[in-house]
């Protein structure tokens, strides 16, 4: 999409997103914005609602309350057909890569192109080559997902997410399971895409090195709430002990590891 | 997307304007196909009016480039906006395509 076509100053805006599963409030009044060309990092402990948040943003889960605007279009109340139209403008990289095992690497990457247009197969093939080169996998198009490593699958997932030249890229742990060099390749690619092509990216990650390397904005989720937000410098300087424990990777701190143990003993002894 | 053609010093100059995307790139492909089958020796694509090109647009140009290799056909591109140029550069295509700041320099390169 060309830059001039933006409807809103924000590629993504989340307002008051709230969602409970049973009695557990997984998302509690979550709000943030991503301007065009920015990389937002979503941090938080495992099970803090980050993947749930992503699933709400892409419309695959519906919130109890709140709104999600993708370039000004509110998507939580759209029907499947309308949502499919908005989805063409964003790419999604899933945690596991989510490739089709019966298709080759090349066919996996070509899938969104062939599904959404009547582009000639030869053109789709060339686009696949361009995308595989972006993720450092030139020459791998004929292999099946079972023949490549987990990290490679993730990079194929990235190539597929980029197949339709999205305006907005969502990545769920894009660098988990990648070696440091490949992590740097994916990080550089994400930064290049935003700087050179004006793409915006929302990245969920536990990898603090990678997060601070690429972020223009960061939010920290804890127990379903955004407890810190800002630029990487602001996040580093934020004195919140929970945040500091997380970014420094300290075992001791306010994040209640022991709480779950007490809860476990109590539950164990309940009649 | 609009395509117009004129000739300068026996060299066809194709001016493209608008967006080259999944929707419009088949039209560009249909326009370029006869150029390669007729073995057009030199071709200039004027990108002055192009706001946006996606990967299918790049693929269409690569396909033409591949086709003209067999008879030594030459292709130059002129007047790419910085953003359009970035789309080429992110996949290192500036290394195979001959990109020029304006039509006269692209024309001069074809005549050289």
Q: Your description of this structure?
A:
The complex is a heterodimer of chains A (271) and B (112). With 271 residues, chain A is α/β, with parallel strands linked by helices. Chain A folds into two domains: 3-89 and 168-269, P-loop containing nucleotide triphosphate hydrolases (Rossmann fold), CATH 3.40.50.300; 93-165, no CATH class. Chain A is 39% helix and 24% strand. Chain A contains ten helices and ten strands. The longest helix of chain A is centred in the C-terminal third of the chain and has 18 residues, at 180-197. Chain B is α/β, with parallel strands linked by helices and 112 residues long. Chain B has a single domain, classed as Transcription Regulator spoIIAA, CATH 3.30.750. Chain B is built from four helices and five strands. Chain B has helices at residues 25-37, 55-69, 82-90, 103-111, and strands at residues 2-8, 11-20, 42-53, 74-78, 98-100. A five-stranded mixed β-sheet of chain B has the order 1-2-3-4-5, with helices on both faces. Chain B is globular. Chain B starts with a strand and ends with a helix. The relative contact order of chain B is 0.18. The model of chain B has no long low-confidence stretch (mean pLDDT 95). Chain A binds chain B through residues 1-4, 113, 116-120, 122-124, 126-127, 130-131, 133-134, 163-165, 192-193, 196-198, and chain B through 19, 22-23, 25-26, 29, 51-52, 54-56, 58-60, 62-63, 83, 86-87, 89-92.
Distance between the termini of chain B: 31 Å
CATH superfamily of the largest domain in chain A: P-loop containing nucleotide triphosphate hydrolases
The description of the largest β-sheet of chain B is: 5 strands, mixed
Number of helices of chain A: 10
The coarse silhouette of chain B is globular
Average pLDDT across residues of chain B?
A: 95
In what range is the share of β-strand residues of chain B?
Answer: 25-35%
Class from secondary-structure proportions of chain B: alpha/beta
Share of residues in strands of chain A: 15-25%
- Derived structural class of chain A: alpha/beta
- With strands numbered from the N-terminus, the spatial order across the biggest sheet of chain B is 1-2-3-4-5
Estimate percent helicity of chain A.
25-40%
The residue ranges of chain B in which pLDDT falls below 50 over 5 or more consecutive positions are none
Backbone CA Rg of chain B: 13 Å
Largest interface: A-B, 27 and 23 residues
The largest pleated sheet of chain A is described as: 6 strands, mixed
Rg calculated over all Cα atoms of chain A? 19 Å
CATH superfamily of chain B: STAS domain
Number of strands of chain B: 5
Number of strands of chain A: 10
Adjacency order of strands in the biggest sheet of chain A: 6-7-8-3-9-10
């Amino acid at each position: 999409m060309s830059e001039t076509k933006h409807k809103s100053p924000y590629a993504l805006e989340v307002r008051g997103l709230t969602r409970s599963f049973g009695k557990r409030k997984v998302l509690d009044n979550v709000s943030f914005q991503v301007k065009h060309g920015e990389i937002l990092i979503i941090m938080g402990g495992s099970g803090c609602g980050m993947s749930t948040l992503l699933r709400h943003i892409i419309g695959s889960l519906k919130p109890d309350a709140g709104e999600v605007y993708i370039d000004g279009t509110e998507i939580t109340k759209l029907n499947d057909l309308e949502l499919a139209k908005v989805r063409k403008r964003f790419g999604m990289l899933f945690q596991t890569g989510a490739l089709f095992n019966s298709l080759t690497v090349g066919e996996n990457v070509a899938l969104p192109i062939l599904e959404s247009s009547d582009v000639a197969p030869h053109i789709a093939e060339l686009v696949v080559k361009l995308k595989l080169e972006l993720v450092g996998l030139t020459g791998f198009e004929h292999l099946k997902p079972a023949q490549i490593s987990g990290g490679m699958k993730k990079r194929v997932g990235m190539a597929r997410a980029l197949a339709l030249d999205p305006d907005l890229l969502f990545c769920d742990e894009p660098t988990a399971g990648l070696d440091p060099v490949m992590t740097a390749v994916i990080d550089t690619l994400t930064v290049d895409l935003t700087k050179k092509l004006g793409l915006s990216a929302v990245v969920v990650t536990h990898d603090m090195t990678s997060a601070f390397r690429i972020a223009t904005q960061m939010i920290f989720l804890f127990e379903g709430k955004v407890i810190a937000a800002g630029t990487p410098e602001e996040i580093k300087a934020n004195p919140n002990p929970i945040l500091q424990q997380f970014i420094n990777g300290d075992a001791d701190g306010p994040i209640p590891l022991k709480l779950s143990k007490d809860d476990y003993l109590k539950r164990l002894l309940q009649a | 997307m609009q395509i117009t053609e004129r000739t300068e010093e026996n060299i066809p100059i194709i001016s493209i304007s608008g967006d080259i995307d999944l929707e419009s790139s088949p039209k560009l492909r249909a326009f370029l196909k006869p150029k390669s089958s007729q073995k057009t020796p030199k071709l200039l694509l004027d990108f002055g009016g192009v706001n946006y090109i996606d990967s299918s647009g790049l693929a269409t140009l690569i396909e033409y480039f591949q086709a003209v290799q067999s008879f030594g056909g030459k292709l130059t591109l002129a007047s790419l906006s910085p953003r359009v140029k970035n789309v080429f550069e992110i996949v290192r295509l500036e290394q195979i395509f001959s990109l020029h700041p304006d039509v006269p320099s692209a024309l001069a390169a074809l005549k050289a």
